[in-house]
Write a structure and sequence with these properties.
The structure holds two protein chains of two kinds. By secondary structure, chain A is mainly β. In chain A, the strands form three sheets. In chain A, strands 2, 5, 6, 10, 11 and 12 form a six-stranded mixed sheet that branches. In chain A, strand 7 and strand 8 form a beta hairpin. Chain B is mostly beta strands. Chain B is 0% helix and 50% strand. In chain B, the strands form two sheets. In chain B, strands 2, 4, 5, 6, 9, 10 and 11 form a seven-stranded mixed sheet that branches. A four-stranded antiparallel sheet of chain B has the order 1-3-8-7, with no helix packed on it. At the A-B interface, strand 6 of A face strand 5 and strand 6 of B.
């Protein structure tokens, strides 16, 4: 089984300041890692994912996340946030390999609400 | 716009009533999913359909049934609604179940059980 811990439920930050949203996971098997973003009254959108290769992955809108296997972390960062980044962010994991519901299932963290202050 | 469409967007039910949540996708995806989102809980998988004609239980299936009506549509039914099923329900679809094929989410159905 997998579990995901997002250490901060809410993160307020001033516009143009840097931000880090923390994500740690626990799993008995290797996992794939994801960050999703949810804007108010909308569904989730995939922000970025780590499947293999370089441990640093980037999104098209300036976010990046780094997979740290030894610390079982996948923190999300942005050097300068914009008002439009205000949303809830979810970290998720999925086991590598296997078959059936367990291998298809995304396990989500409880979410971090990012509020960008003008 | 192409995507995942959920109906209704809002619904209030009384305890014991039945309800079917509808989901349709127009992206020719093979796989579809139902999640529930509760405050402070993230999303939890209720049921999924890897391909047309198949359905399987997720993490929290109790109290729900699903039907994969055709490739486009995947419905979620509450036979006897309970207050614990008050939640926001999200439908998602993906080309397949491979990890390289990300899930696309609808905008959700907000369901309140009184």
């Amino acid at each position: 089984a997998q579990s995901v811990t997002q250490l901060d439920s809410q993160v307020p930050v001033f516009e143009e300041a840097p931000v880090e949203l923390r994500c740690n996971y626990s799993s008995s098997v290797s996992v794939y890692l994801f960050w999703y973003v949810q804007y108010p009254n909308q569904g989730l959108q995939l922000l970025l994912k780590y499947l293999s290769g370089s441990t640093l992955v980037e999104s098209i809108n300036g976010f990046e996340a780094e997979f740290n296997k030894s610390q079982t972390s996948f923190h999300l960062r942005k050097p300068s946030v914009h008002i439009s980044d205000t949303a809830e962010y979810f970290c998720a994991v999925r086991p590598r390999g296997g078959s059936g519901a367990g291998s298809y299932q995304l396990t989500f963290g409880k979410g971090t609400k990012l509020s960008v202050i003008p | 716009n192409a995507g995942v469409t959920q109906t209704p967007k809002f619904q209030v039910l009384k305890t014991g009533q039945s309800m079917t949540l509808q989901c349709a996708q127009d992206m020719n995806h093979n796989s579809m999913y139902w999640y529930r989102q509760d405050p402070g809980m993230g999303l939890r998988l209720i049921y999924y359909s890897a391909s047309e004609g198949t359905t399987d239980k997720g993490e929290v299936p109790n109290g729900y049934n699903v039907s994969r009506l055709n490739k486009r549509e995947f419905s979620l039914r509450l036979e006897s609604a309970a207050p614990s099923q008050t939640s926001v329900y999200f439908c998602a679809s993906s080309p397949g179940v491979r990890v390289s094929q990300p899930q696309h989410f609808g905008d959700g159905t907000r369901l309140s059980i009184l």
